[in-house]
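Subject: for your reference before the review

Hello V.,

The reviewers asked for a structural picture of the protein, and I figured it would be easier to keep everything in one thread rather than splitting it across files. Below is the amino acid sequence we used in the manuscript, unchanged from the supplementary table.
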Amino acid sequence: MSKKATIKKVDDASWLVIDQHRGNVGVLYQNVQGDYEYLASDIKEKFKSDRAVEKYFGARVFQQKTVESAIQPDKMFIAGFEIPFPSPELISPDHPEYTKDVPLFSKTANSDVLYAAGWYAINFEKGWKHGYCPKASTLFQYGYEGPFNTKDELRFRLKELNKIKRNEIKNSD
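And here is what came back from the structure prediction:
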């Protein structure tokens, strides 16, 4: 085993092993008998002790005081729309501000401020502007179109909406 392995603790009995030298990703885990097993695409090793594991990997696996979590979601989604918050609180259908067309959430359980998941075109006085997970109150106050799944979809629609708005202003003068 390469000495360039990175080992991240997943839970009390399993570790993710990333061997940069060989380009491997494997799993080290402690089985019910108390022995350790390491599995990678082309490797299967068994160890009887903590010391044997650390000798094989050339690293102190079990004395890590601060451990970076190996389990972190890359992205969070609500109703298929990506959001930039790690643990949102969904708004239930019995909430007074619930609408089935706009996926609403709050950043924390105790918050009264609601946000809308996705990209939106917001109809401000001077023109349509984009918003990513805007406050729901902003959407309802100014008017909106959306949600859009991507910023590119939104940009295309914003060009159309602003063109329409400019023509309406020009024709009303």
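For the response letter, the relevant points are probably these. The first helix runs from residue 50 to 57. The mean pLDDT is 84.

Happy to draft the paragraph if you're swamped.

O.
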